[in-house]
Write a structure and sequence with these properties.
The complex is a heterodimer of chains A (about 260) and B (about 140). Chain A has helices spanning about 15-20, 50-65, 90-95, 175-180, 185-200, 220-230; strands at about 1-5, 25-30, 30-35, 75-85, 105-110, 120-125, 130, 140-145, 155-160, 160-165, 210-215, 240-245, 250-260. Chain A is an alpha+beta fold and about 260 residues long. Chain B is built from three helices and seven strands, in the order ββαββαβαββ. Chain B has helices at about 20, 55-75, 95-105, and strands at about 1-5, 5-10, 30-35, 35-40, 80-90, 110-115, 125-135.
């Protein structure tokens, strides 16, 4: 079961407000996968640029609004990627963050480029409820391990309800070409490859629950989005986009978690 | 019927590796939810002193992966139960070295992985997080 969790208040629908091609959150396999959350006024949808402290507080307020009607809460957070614009604000983030997490989730703090010059973005997975009986010990299966023999990673791992994909980059058969290829071209190549890989794992793009897009410059987001939306015509997955330095001069790298 | 998916905190058996407690940070070392384990980002912490173990990048990565193994084993899981890893390097140029170390730790059926380069704190050269399955393999 893959349920789109729609925005409980109009402002939290970033698709409507800013054309982000993503669902606010997706519930699947007992978990809730949220799109990257930033400081938005929940009623008007206006971006509330502020300090790390004010943005963090706003985001947790919005997260509560999003999770509680969906059967979860701030006490049930599982994993957070806490993204800040500059590592120097680490202690400020911690001070603002702590009061909201009485039972703190696992967390990794990343210093990345965030959309629209905002200072904080939280990427959250939370626990919802089980459906049916508890599963037996789950098995872990590599999908299509022959595909990427040169790197010590598996392109995809099937575990329980989900398939977990490695970050996919555009084909690097011709390095010079890659350096000059556009974000749009790389995005198309990546998502085509992602569709094939998911199908090999018994899944599909339509079953993707959470997508992470890493891009070398947030200024190129629109170029990625214009291609991205073609691949997810209906009920797009939850998604987080952030700017970071990519290995090998790539401009875009995309990974995802999908239901099988 | 539906009921809340069980959620519990995972801690390392070795208290020196409990960075969030020792440095008073607002995260748990890991969370188990249902059959999945989510670990916080881990760095090269010395398991004897609890201090940072900085050195050549290959050694930092080895130490971090040893710590991750300890953390997972404390929860009765293990490196061979990892499904997805996210690796953050301070220097994108360390990618090949990372892969070399990866082959030592994951000789067959390695986990899915994403890698990028970001600013890291405390002079760490690497930070690694993972999602793993609970329970031993072969069960």
């Amino acid at each position: 079961m893959r349920d789109v969790i729609s925005a409980p208040v109009p402002g939290l629908d970033l698709g409507r407000e800013y054309g982000h091609h993503q669902s606010p959150a997706i519930r699947a396999g007992g978990l809730i996968f949220c799109s990257g959350m930033v400081a938005i006024n929940p009623q008007t949808g206006e971006r509330e640029h502020g300090t790390v402290t004010s943005e963090t507080r706003r985001i947790f307020g919005n997260l509560k609004l999003l999770l509680e009607p969906a059967g979860s809460s701030l006490e049930r957070l599982v994993q957070v990627h806490a993204m800040i614009y500059d590592r120097i604000e680490y202690d400020v983030l911690n001070r603002a963050y702590r009061p909201y997490v009485p039972s703190p989730p696992a967390r990794t703090v990343m210093s990345v480029q965030i959309e629209a010059g905002l200072k904080v973005m939280l990427d959250v997975i939370a626990a919802a409820e089980t459906r049916g009986s508890a599963p037996a010990a789950l098995s872990r299966q590599v999908v299509d391990s022959a595909q990427n023999p040169t790197l010590p990673l598996s392109p995809a791992i099937h575990a329980g309800d989900f398939v977990f994909l490695s970050g996919i980059v555009a084909d690097d058969s011709a390095i010079d070409e890659r350096r000059h290829s556009t974000v749009a071209a790389q995005t198309r190549q990546i998502l085509t490859k992602m569709a094939q890989l998911l199908e090999a794992a018994g899944s599909s793009l339509a079953k993707a629950v959470k997508v992470n897009v890493l891009i070398y410059s947030m200024l190129e987001c629109d170029n990625m989005n214009s291609v991205y939306r073609e691949f997810f015509p209906d009920d797009p997955p939850a998604r987080t986009v952030y700017g970071a330095t990519l290995v090998g001069g790539h401009k875009v790298e995309i990974d995802c978690i999908a239901l099988t | 019927m539906t009921e809340p998916l069980p959620r519990s905190v995972i801690e390392p058996a070795n208290p020196n590796l409990n960075v969030s407690r020792n440095a008073n940070l607002p995260h748990s070392p890991g969370i188990r939810v249902g059959e999945y384990i989510f670990l916080s980002g881990m760095g090269p912490v010395d398991p004897v002193t609890g201090g940072r173990n900085l050195g050549p990048i290959a050694e930092q990565i080895r130490q971090t992966l040893r710590n991750m193994a300890h953390m997972l084993e404390s929860a009765e899981s293990g490196l061979n139960r990892i499904v997805k890893m996210t690796v953050v390097l301070a220097d994108v140029g360390d990618y090949d070295e990372m892969n070399r170390v990866w082959r030592e730790f994951f000789p067959v059926d390695p986990p899915a992985r994403s890698t990028c380069a970001l600013q890291l704190s405390n002079g760490n050269g690497v930070e690694i997080e993972c999602i793993a399955l609970a329970g031993k393999s072969g069960v």
